[in-house]
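Justification of resources, computational component.

The compute hours requested in this renewal are based largely on the per-chain cost of generating structure records like the one below. Each record pairs the submitted sequence with a full structure-token output. That output is archived, and it is also reused by downstream analysis tasks.
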Amino acid sequence: MLGQKPDKKTISRTMCLKPTAKVGFIFLTIFLLVVISSSLAFAATPAVGTISPSSGTSIPGQTRDFTTTYTDADGWQNIQYVHFLVNASTSNTNCLYTYYNQNTNLLYLRNDANSAWSGGFAPGSVNTIENSYCKLNCALTTVTGSGTALTIKWNVTFKPTFLGVKNTYLYVKDDTNLYNGWVRKGTWTINTSPAVGTVSPSSGTGQKDVQQIFATTYTDADGWQNIQYVHLLINASTDGSNCLYAYYNQNTNLLYLRNDANTAWLGGYTPGSTNVIENSYTKLNCQTTSVNGTGTTLTINWAVILKPTFTGARKTYLYVKDDVNAYNGWVQKGTWTIPNASPSVGTINPSADSVTSDETISFTSTYTDADTWLNIQYAYILVNTAVLGSNCLYAYYNQNTNKLYIRNDANSAWLGGYAPGASNIIENSYVKLYCANTTVQGSANTLTISWSASFKGTFSGFKNDYLKVTDDANVQTAWSDKEDSYIFHRPVLAQE
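The structure output for this chain reads:
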């Protein structure tokens, strides 16, 4: 009844039940915590798998499929979402950064600023998600789950704004928020190879020491700004020594010219500056050299001066390389001729002598070229009874490489190839040429060579001397008999 006090028995029963309920609640709570903790403790961390292709190249606007895999030991259904990123680094701006939510079966693409997700469409739907750098075609993007693996084939297109060498990264997170990533899985290059264009004039005849403008073009479908550097080469071949070998770096806006030996670049000046870069054969006038880029084309007007040392028929070659190191060249685009003066031989000293076997003698010979001594390519000396290259002293000096040679006995091969002043001795069965004591000197139009030689006992009798010279335009004189006579004889032995 209301207001009636409970009896002792009721109070006692009630007091006994309350502790039991509390204990039950506590045990239930502990049980649930253990279950949840166990579930979390034994959940497997997901892992990123592979990407195919793992490397390659595509041109802007070309559609490519990338197949990526992600795994979870608890089953692919335990994967919450995954990412596929293509960029130079793990930066998520201005790139391909995609997202697939496995629980909702929706695809997304990150915006340029990495501030929001675009899309939210199912794989196979007719939607295309894009930013300023790429497109994700949902209709051709497929998702497959099997066992522990989730496989996604992303159908993407890179735009012309997204160029260069990029890395590919994968990321995965499961329903318990365990994750793996960002893991680099490969590289991809988006690029169109550059091409050389034209040279103008493509042919003709120039003058020594007179400036000539050669207008050259180079193209890149990704824009002229994607060109890294270009070359103009004028020479008899693609050899970069002793010629006009020019270089323009578009990224730094600097001009260079190769040195004579083709071992280093000279200059490094901007077009329009007052500098002149030169080697022994040519000059590049930076002040009157101009560069212009528009659309896909880079045009350079090279202001060059060809020196008297650089004459004869030459070819013009172009070369271009872009920012991802794709290139085109060397491509011959024309010819150019610089009037050439024929070389000539001079004198030889001594003009006559009597020489004992194994005695060292020095022959000093001269060779001339009105285009300067640097235009001389080869200088020859022959000592024999007639113009025969066998069993004698038949030597030559290559002025462009600074090397000495003598002919073998059979006149079938050159021996040596050593610099004047080197410690080498070049010999056949009849003569020795001492490189250490052989000297070469060039001044104005004359090349002077002092050949240090000794003749063996196998080389005796009356001999004549002959000279011949070839210039860089491959104009060659005939053998010239200098009408000098030498008597070679064996030494008289004491018992004789």
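The chain has a mean pLDDT of 90. The radius of gyration is 42 Å.
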